[in-house]
Specification:
Helix 6 links the parallel strand 11 and strand 12. It is globular, with a radius of gyration of 21 Å. Helices cover about 30% and strands about 25% of the residues. Strands 10-11-12-7-13-14 form a six-stranded mixed β-sheet, with helices on both faces. Strands 6-5-8-9 form a four-stranded antiparallel β-sheet. Strands 1-4 form a two-stranded antiparallel ribbon.
Length: about 325
């Protein structure tokens, strides 16, 4: 898939002993931070276009321009440039601590970037927060739900917050409860829900207003196989009807089945992006007629050593 990019005016420097002056969102404020310095060796060729700043176009759903987040003296996300087109099912992968959740939080307005900008449907998330958030549905990894409401009350409350007509709120609530197999527990308080039930009620709240862009962070964690299939069907239906899904998960098989394009972040840096076939080709992993799994490509891209998992005291 070909994307349009503008070359950036400048890129972060790695000089000055690894310290980089970084302009924050506050005027006249410079900070100096320590870049990530590890011995990770990337054998995967990173295309030049990934260091370019993407343009906002009529068919772009999410555009990230130099998005950066610094915690203390560490880059959580470092100069991230990315465009996701409308209607795409985009998978966002990375090891633990790579910057996936931080990236999503910056896009949806929960964590303010140190530098850079995030746009949804051409709207600047931080300059037009109310307008941008009305377009979004969000299911975070760590759910903060109104636990003293029942499932039915929670969905009606969320639907009302999005200014849906009362009749529409009631109808959508009941349909979501039915489809997600929560009807029998609809009047239980959310605090008494299992992990999987909480994920499902959280997803229902994220899609009740039919968002243009849906952000999902580990949506299948704790969900049983039957509910997992139902959720996958709902997500596919959303994209068929024009919605964009930005999806983060560690379950490679699900990402491989659902996503039309994948981005991989490691140590705060976007190190790969494209369709699975494109990632295989760039990695030179074309064995077995190019059918290498996403997991294999992922290991190669992040430079993972998966052979160090043996414990000496288990050997006899």
């Amino acid at each position: 898939m070909t994307q349009q990019y503008n070359q950036p005016d400048s890129a972060p420097s790695s000089q000055n002993n690894g310290h980089v002056p970084l302009q924050t969102n506050s005027p006249n404020t410079d900070i100096s931070v320590q870049q990530n310095t590890t011995n990770t060796q990337y054998t995967y060729p990173i295309p030049a276009f990934m260091n370019a700043v993407p343009q906002i176009t009529a068919d772009s759903a999410v555009v990230l321009q130099g998005l950066t987040c610094v915690f203390g003296h560490k880059y959580a996300v470092n100069n991230l440039n990315l465009m996701v087109k409308k209607g795409e099912f985009f998978g966002f992968l990375g090891p633990n601590g790579a910057g996936k959740s931080t990236t999503i939080k910056m896009i949806v307005g929960q964590v303010k970037p140190t530098a850079g900008a995030a746009f949804v449907n051409g709207i600047d998330v931080w300059k037009q927060p109310l307008e941008s958030r009305s377009l979004l549905g969000v299911l975070p990894e760590k759910l903060n739900l109104y636990e003293r409401l029942s499932g039915r009350e929670f969905l009606r409350f969320v639907g009302t917050l999005y200014n849906l007509p009362k009749k529409e709120v009631i109808n959508r609530t009941e349909e979501l409860l039915e489809v997600l197999s929560l009807k029998d527990d609809a009047d239980k308080m959310v605090v008494d829900y299992s992990v999987g039930m909480r994920k499902k009620i959280g997803l229902a709240g994220a899609i009740i207003h039919r968002p243009s862009i849906l952000f999902l962070d580990e949506p299948f964690e704790g969900v049983d196989p039957i509910s997992s299939r139902i959720i996958r069907n709902i997500l596919n239906e959303l994209t068929r009807n024009g919605a964009t899904i930005f999806f983060s998960s560690h379950i490679m098989e699900i990402v491989e089945k659902l996503c039309t394009r994948v981005g991989i972040i490691n140590q705060g840096v976007l190190v790969a992006e494209g369709t699975l076939d494109e990632l295989r080709q760039r990695a030179g992993n074309t064995d077995n007629q190019g059918n290498a799994s996403l997991e294999d490509v992922f290991f190669q891209v992040v430079g993972a050593n998966v052979d160090k998992g043996s414990l000496s005291w288990l050997e006899q």
